[in-house]
């Protein structure tokens, strides 16, 4: 841990000792041989973690998750093309707004806060548009919406889009390497994320993998995207680094790249349950998700995300119980743990959010410390939480 407090928000997250060590170095040149090698290896490891095919193209670009979303939007469609957005919270709404600003004709498929539209509703929306002669060019879904803790059924959504010839784009900022995703097998076209969540690196990198179909969609656009967001500008750079040559379009965030390289190495080298790599690490997130949900429930708390089947494994969105308000966050912080407030517009005061991803899957002790800080704070606020029951329920899952 870097400071006296434990950072348990849904990103940025606490970093592993290995990643912290890598960060403790001067930034290398973007054409230093050791840097070129690590850049190339990082691109290859992304394909592996994403479950992406050999013909897919990974991109590592300086920027945040929002930049990755914008890269996906502007390279997928131009003004006048139709997009369907599966709306599960604040970040899906952001994606819809980006698409509108690009001039796309946007339809949002929404559900009540804390819920997700069903796959049947999605298929109906796709089919009706097709029957009306106004088919969607692309659909956009947030794998885990960090404002609600809701996970969509990415496999069914990707398959439904593929069957109908619609491009599918998934925002995996709060999911990639923490939730199951098989890009090639499911036929997804873009899976994007940022460095600061389940990949266990600091904020500052926008990461995307594009399918061959998505690469073609860019070539077919009637108008080019803004230059710094255009994958045609970045493509030769990524190909050069993967082939072991330095290249330049815009200076890479070299220190962050090295941290990402270490984070990716820890994902692909992760061993548990007799398995290795991203599948094992994702299973570990599922176990942690179950443990945290068992803990919240035994403390007497309920989730903002309606049912356990759609609750994310990378984070929890937890409702304040009756008589408790957002002053709980200060009480938790007093106990050395930082968690986040609500983010769903209009419902910010109803719940709090806790991240449990990345390096945290190796630290059940710190997850229990978090549950303890929340439980003690609830008791201080006058809520009769059973602290031992909460801790024991979580412990039993490990
Ligand atoms: N999408 C999701 C699901 C997110 O959780 C976030 C960040 N919390 C973003 C997009 C935007 O990422 P950033 O803050 O790095 O721009």
Beta-strand percentage? Answer: 15-25%
Radius of gyration: 21 Å
- Structural class determined from secondary elements: alpha/beta
Distance between termini? 22 Å
The average pLDDT value, as a whole number, equals: 97
Largest β-sheet summary: 7 strands, mixed
Question: What does it look like?
Answer:
There is one protein chain. This protein is globular. With 398 residues, it is α/β, with parallel strands linked by helices. The chain is 41% helix and 16% strand. It has helices at 17-23, 33-50, 65-76, 90-101, 119-131, 154-163, 183-186, 212-219, 231-242, 254-268, 278-298, 328-334, 364-380, 387-395, and strands at 6-7, 57-62, 82-87, 105-110, 138-142, 144-145, 150-151, 167-171, 190-194, 205-210, 271-272, 275-276, 315-319, 337-338, 340-341, 351-355. The strands form five sheets. A seven-stranded mixed sheet has the order 2-10-9-8-5-3-4, with helices on both faces. A three-stranded antiparallel sheet has the order 13-16-15, with helices on one face. A two-stranded parallel sheet has the order 1-14. Residues 11, 64-66, 69, 91, 142, 145-146, 171, 173-174, 194, 203 line the site of 4'-deoxy-4'-aminopyridoxal-5'-phosphate (PMP). 4'-deoxy-4'-aminopyridoxal-5'-phosphate (PMP) binds at residues 11, 64-66, 69, 91, 142, 145-146, 171, 173-174, 194, 203.
């Amino acid at each position: 841990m870097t400071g006296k407090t434990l950072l348990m928000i849904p990103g940025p997250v606490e970093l592993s000792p290995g990643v912290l060590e890598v960060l403790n170095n001067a930034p290398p040149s973007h054409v230093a041989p050791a840097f070129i090698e690590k850049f190339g290896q990082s691109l290859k490891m992304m394909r592996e973690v994403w479950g992406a095919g050999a013909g897919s193209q990974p991109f590592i670009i300086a920027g945040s998750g929002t930049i990755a979303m914008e890269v996906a939007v502007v390279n997928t469609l131009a003004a006048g093309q139709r997009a369907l957005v599966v709306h599960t919270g604040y970040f899906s709404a952001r994606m819809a707004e980006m698409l509108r600003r690009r001039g796309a004709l946007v339809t949002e498929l929404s559900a009540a806060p804390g819920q997700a539209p069903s796959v049947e509703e999605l298929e109906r929306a796709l089919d009706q548009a097709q029957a009306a002669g106004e088919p969607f060019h692309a659909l956009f879904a947030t794998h885990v919406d960090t404002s609600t803790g809701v996970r969509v059924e990415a496999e069914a959504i990707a398959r439904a889009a593929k069957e109908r010839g619609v491009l599918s784009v998934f925002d995996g900022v709060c999911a990639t390497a923490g939730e199951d995703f098989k890009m090639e097998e499911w036929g997804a076209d873009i899976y994007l994320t940022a460095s600061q969540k389940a990949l266990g690196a600091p904020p500052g990198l926008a990461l995307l993998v594009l399918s061959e179909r998505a690469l073609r969609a860019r070539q077919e656009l009637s108008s080019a995207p803004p230059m710094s967001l255009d994958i045609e500008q970045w493509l030769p750079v990524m190909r050069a680094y993967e082939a072991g040559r330095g290249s330049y379009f815009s200076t890479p965030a070299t220190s962050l790249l090295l941290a990402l390289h270490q984070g990716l190495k820890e994902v692909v080298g992760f061993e548990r349950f007799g398995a290795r790599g991203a599948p094992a690490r994702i299973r570990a997130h599922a176990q942690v998700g179950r443990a945290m949900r068992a803990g919240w429930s035994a403390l007497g708390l309920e989730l903002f995300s309606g049912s356990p089947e759609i609750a994310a494994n990378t984070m929890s969105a937890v409702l304040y119980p009756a008589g408790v308000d957002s002053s709980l966050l200060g009480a938790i912080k007093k106990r050395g743990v930082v968690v986040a407030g609500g983010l769903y517009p209009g419902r910010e005061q109803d719940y709090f959010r806790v991240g449990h991803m990345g390096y945290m899957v190796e630290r059940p002790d710190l997850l229990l410390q978090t549950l303890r800080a929340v439980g003690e704070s609830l008791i201080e606020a006058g809520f009769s939480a059973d602290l031992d029951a909460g801790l024991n329920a979580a412990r039993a899952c490990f």
